[in-house]
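Need tokens for this chain, all 332 residues.
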Amino acid sequence: DEALARSNDAGGGLVVVADGEGMVLGTVTDGDIRRAALGGAGLDTPARELMGAPVTVDPSTTADEVRDLLEERHLPTAAVVDAGRLVGIRHLAEVGGTQAAVTAVVLAGGRGQRLRPLTDKVPKPLLTVGRTTILERLLEQLWSAGIVDVHLAVNYKAEVFEERLGTGEGYGIDLRYLHERQELGTAGPLSLLDPVPTGPILVTMADQVTSLPFARLIDFHHQQGAAITVAAFMHEVPIPYGVLHLEGERVIGIEEKPTLRRRCNAGIFVIDPEVVALVPPDQMFGMPSVVEAALAKGWPVAAFPILERWIDVGSPDALEAALLSFATGEEV
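Here are the structure tokens for all 332 residues:
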């Protein structure tokens, strides 16, 4: 938990691990933490056990060498270590490095049936939670992650979005609208992109409240060499009975009221541009179907575990949970 917090606080997602004498032992990237979580590590795992390949350079390393290291590993920062001690941080931007521009497609075309009658007047993404609306908080997060090319897929009450958000100038982004003539599901709006972006595409629902770091999600997608990366949250289902473990007809154990834990699709994806071609035009199509089509082609699909707070505001109970979090000062 501390390593993740420090990684997020660092901005570049890099934590330097040192011993009691201040000697550098190694580094932990945000990706190291996520990959360890997928392997079963908990948030209380000591930082030393999370360390991956060190992201370090020495003071004599040239700007070109730093840039090559960071671009090759799809990382924004490296630690400068001299005689075993941390003496500085080098950033990709300062050494002339570049990262592929990311386009975001935000899905806001749904009716929000489960939140009626609230959504009879206001589209669900424009419901206020805390200091601002669900969608406007998301747009701020995209800007913070350096994602300024944003397409908003709209259908129900499309004019309300356009009236409130305009061109996105007030949020520091270039906001364009994908108008669905009919509801197209969670992937169908991708077929409306013209032209298709040349870089990665972040696809996200517009009705989620989360502190997930989008920049680190993009880094992870590149590091895994994936065609699609699916953000995943951990869902727990308590079983109110004793579960029998069987071998044939024999009982070999009994587990009293266990909790089933599974990683589930959070409705946030990063896709490579070629994935858009898997989406048929002008028809209802979901991102799960896109994932299945990619897997059928043998394309790699990665999972990015969400370790931060994540609320899908899709039901009255979820909306109440989000409102309560902000009302009690617990920023998500």
